[in-house]
């Protein structure tokens, strides 16, 4: 008869211990803690849709929320974490050579790649060499490059791919330096993590600027079917 009571006694003793550990963890619970416990999960379209609905919930009407919804047909296949950047782009855009040849418009790009920093932009530009062929790539970030320079380049030449940060791209669109009517692909550098293990959507400023850019024009273009979104 003593055994069950012993069992009962030992359980409450364990509980406070585990809850205090949990409480401690909950207080800290940085991204690195979470990652150490689980393998990184590749981003899927639902992640972006949830992010948008969380961001706008509470300050938008039901109708406005409907207009911000993206159906699965707006998305390209997401990166399952097995791809290099070039191999991912080749998979989602098999007709790139033809698209590149047909693109003649100034002030625009066929593909926009959005990431969290100037440094990451340069990395991505390097790692798309096998995909891009002889097309022209424009750096669209703020570090060391004046906005006037970027506007001049867009006005004078034909560029196929723009790689940069959401803040600078948003300003270029607002100031009519970059027109999105020829853009067919928008790739978000979704899964990559910086030294602090943050993805672009874990950095509040980058997240807000990305959502602003999406809301400003990209969501409408996706819903009309002219732009497809990819999560790399």
UniProtKB/TrEMBL annotation:
PANTHER family: PROTEIN CMSS1. GO terms for cellular component: 90S preribosome; nucleus. Pfam families: CMS1. It comes from Sakesphorus luctuosus. This is CMS1 protein. InterPro entries: Cms1, P-loop_NTPase. Residues 1-42 are annotated as: Disordered.
């Amino acid at each position: 008869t003593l055994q069950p009571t012993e069992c009962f006694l030992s359980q409450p003793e364990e509980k406070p211990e585990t809850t205090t550990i949990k409480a401690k963890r909950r207080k800290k619970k940085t991204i690195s803690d979470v990652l150490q416990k689980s393998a990184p999960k590749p981003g899927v379209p639902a992640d972006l849709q949830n992010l948008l609905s969380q961001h706008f919930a509470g300050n938008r009407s039901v109708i406005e929320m409907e207009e911000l919804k993206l159906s699965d047909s707006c998305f390209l296949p997401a990166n399952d974490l097995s791809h290099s950047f070039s191999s991912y782009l080749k998979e989602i855009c098999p007709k790139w050579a033809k698209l590149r040849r047909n693109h003649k418009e100034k002030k625009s790009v066929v593909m926009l790649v959005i990431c969290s920093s100037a440094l990451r932009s340069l990395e991505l530009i390097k790692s798309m060499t096998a995909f891009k062929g002889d097309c022209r790539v424009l750096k669209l970030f703020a570090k060391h490059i004046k906005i006037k320079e970027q506007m001049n380049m867009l006005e004078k030449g034909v560029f196929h791919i723009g790689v940069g940060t959401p803040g600078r791209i948003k300003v270029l669109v607002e100031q009519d330096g970059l027109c999105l009517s020829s853009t067919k692909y928008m790739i978000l550098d979704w899964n990559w993590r910086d030294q602090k293990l943050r993805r672009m959507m874990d950095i509040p400023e980058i997240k807000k600027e990305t959502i602003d850019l999406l809301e400003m024009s990209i969501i409408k273009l996706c819903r009309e079917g002219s732009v497809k979104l990819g999560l790399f």
